[in-house]
Design brief:
Number of strands: 10
Helix content: 40-55%
Distance between the termini: 53 Å
Number of helices: 13
Shape: globular
Length: 345
Amino acid sequence: MEKVVIVTGANSGIGLALCDRLLTEDSQLRLCLACRNMQRAEAARTVLLTSHTDSHVDVLHLDVGSVQSVLTAAEEVKARYSRIDFLYLNAGIMPNPQVDVRAFFMGLFSRNVINMFATAEGLLTQQDRLNSDGLQEVFATNLFGHFFLIRELEPLLCDAGHTSRVVWTSSSNARRSAFSIEDMQHRNGTEPYSSSKYASDMLSLALNRHKNSQGLFSSVICPGLVMTNLTYGILPSFFWTLIMPIMWLIRIFTNTFTLTPYNGAEALHWLFLQKPESLDPRAKYHSLTSGLGTNYTQPRQMDIDDERSEVLFSKLLELEKVVRRKLSKKNADNEAHRQYLGEIE
């Protein structure tokens, strides 16, 4: 039976590189590109089919930052497929990143330069905002939308006698210090990206605790420092032109500078080949590249604990109930408005 693989944020960067690698590994799988921009999704599908002419590649409109879009997409997935083998939760945003230029240049010529590039610790902030659902945009896109999608797809993910996998694209920027369980949406902070990624690490642990017995296994990866649209948006283009030679030089001495999307997708591809029972739920699987250009995957223990991850899981379930009530009321109001317009015409 062909495997069904869904990848969110699949139209470019690490997501597209992963799709190419998966089709190279198994040309018989059924691949679904779940993307917000359908024009870019179709373009990505064309690129993949050019290289993998006999493959099955579908596209799906999905904006994980919108609960209505998640619901609509989930219904379409359940109508299309009878099972899901892999759900790669790769879509993410980092809106309006701001760099502390002084800290950047001080770090550039210090012993901390590698860690600065690898984690952006103490260097990077973002300007978040509320979305149309009244949720913080980064939290909604990077975490809650994917959680909501999992909940909607549980009939396909938690099917008796079938093992399914959820894989989160996290980050080395995921830090405990950026996350507060009392402010899980990060309304009061300036590092929503770091907060959302740390939350996804915790959520993965909680999902394993609650869902392994139902055949669902969750893993977390870090792609390393990869040059993608997300990364290029952090600094002006001329900065990257200036520092790229330095970054390639540094890569000789560190394995975290994967730099290309293909290299960054290494851990995502590696997990595709593993038996879920052999994986450590407390580990983050890192894509690494040696100075000679050899790619490999290495597990590293995450700075998370069971109690906090359980609290987060419970709070997300409560938020899910609130969001569903609001959405139900909104849809009912819209339907009543349509009926009223029909009556007066």
